[in-house]
Amino acid sequence: MTTSIATICSLATAIGQSGIGIVRISGPLALDIAKKILLTELKPRYSFYGVFNDANRNTIDKGVAIYFPGPNSYTGEDVVEFHGHGGMSVLKSLIEVIVFFGARLAEPGEFTKRAFLNGKMDLVQAEAVQDLIQSSSEQSALSAVRSLTGEFSEKINLLLADLIALRVFIEATIDFSDEEIDFLESHEVSTKLATLKDLLTNILENATQGAILRDGLHVAIAGKPNAGKSSLLNALTKQPSAIVTDIAGTTRDILKETIHINGMPLHIIDTAGLHNSDDIIEQEGIRRAHIEINNADVVLLVYDAIDKSPDLSILPSEIQAKPVICIKNKIDLVKEKSKITKFDSYSDISLSAKTNAGVDMLKKLLSEFAGFKPDSDSVFLARKRHILAIERTLEYINSAEDQLKGGASELVAEDLRQAGMSLGAITGEFSSDDLLGEIFSSFCIGK
């Protein structure tokens, strides 16, 4: 059953010249529009090779068309795909004639949104489509596939079923509150709540790993001029991303690079040297450096080995308790060995960005800091909203345990209802239009 009467169309392949370009149509007019363009009827799931015509029956292109009747299609609606040549002028003309015959241009993510609304996939699987497209490493792609195939959703749905069953039982006991038998105790509700907590905690750990794999860690490199910040960026990326000279203040703007540590994205930001300056350009660079430092997950404060200790006072006061790793750079000049020293408020790594001594040690520390476990084979790509929903569910389970100790059956049932609502929001069983709009607006056009 479809949920929209509009017929939509869009380019489904990347913009630019290519050997093949695909235009997709979905909706009740899809087959009729295809007939007007191809001048023939399409058989379901058969490839038709022929001419693509415009409204005046002039040839636009020659290619393949395939008809997927609903509900057995990606969106659950009638879908037609035109596979033609990848020239943008050709594809533009094809889209124009499709719109002329009654379709409209699709919004970002609208094909996948319709697939969700028509029950072809749940919200987790819909998000996994975009995550798979955007995956930047083999491990993140594999984790996205786990979500797309329903592994994450299955775990959530099993937990949701257990939650609902327990809530139904507790609500039933309220109707028998005058009986002498203590139903809450006899059915070991507390044990079932504890089991739910354990399962949720395990899922939360895997989801947190997935979020790290998807979003990565944002690291800002800060320090005084000529401390070797740009050299450290180059050492981490293994390429000359930043200009390195002996002149202090070479970096005046923000440089950003992304690398992967065992599949985890590490977003590295090199900032301007932090010091007092009368130079207007340097002042702007320092202002931008403060912004990046405040937005980072962790700050690498680089200082010269001859300084003996880092000057934490140069960091902006707004970062407060933000994690800081101090980098004692240029140890090759003072004949020191690379090592890690942990203090109460920060860790200190002695390394040489020039010789790479200790750089791998820093990468390992950053991976550990993020809590990333590269060997986990049960991780599914997760988003921040998934983690927040699981955390809220755990809060309601904890509250239910407290209410159970006081014998408040009604409050236990209410906490379980709220827990179910939070958990159901992950797969889209309980979702708002605002949430759907936010999720699908980030999709690429044509998906």
Largest sheet composition: 7 strands, mixed
Assembly status: single chain
Number of strands: 13
Q: Per DSSP, what share of the residues sits in E-state strands of 2 or more residues?
A: 15-25%
Portion of residues within helices: 40-55%
Q: So what's the overall shape?
A: flat
Order of helices and strands: EEHEEEHEHHHHHHEHEEHEEEEHHHH
Query: Spans of 5+ residues with little confidence (pLDDT < 50)?
Result: 242-252
Task: Describe the overall structure.
It is built from 14 helices and 13 strands. The protein has helices at residues 30-38, 88-100, 110-117, 123-134, 138-148, 151-174, 183-186, 189-215, 229-237, 280-295, 359-370, 384-405, 409-427, 433-440, and strands spanning 8-11, 20-26, 47-53, 59-68, 79-85, 104-105, 217-223, 255-261, 264-270, 298-304, 324-329, 339-342, 347-350. The longest helix has 27 residues, at 189-215. With 447 residues, the protein is an alpha/beta fold. It starts with 7 loop residues before the first strand and ends in a 7-residue tail after the last helix. Helix 6 (151-174) runs antiparallel to helix 13 and helix 12 (384-405) runs antiparallel to helix 13 (409-427). The strands form two sheets. The protein has a seven-stranded mixed sheet, sandwiched between helices. Strands 3-4-5-2-1-6 form a six-stranded mixed sheet, with helices on one face. The model is unreliable at 242-252 (pLDDT under 50). It is flat. Strand 3 and strand 4 form a beta hairpin.
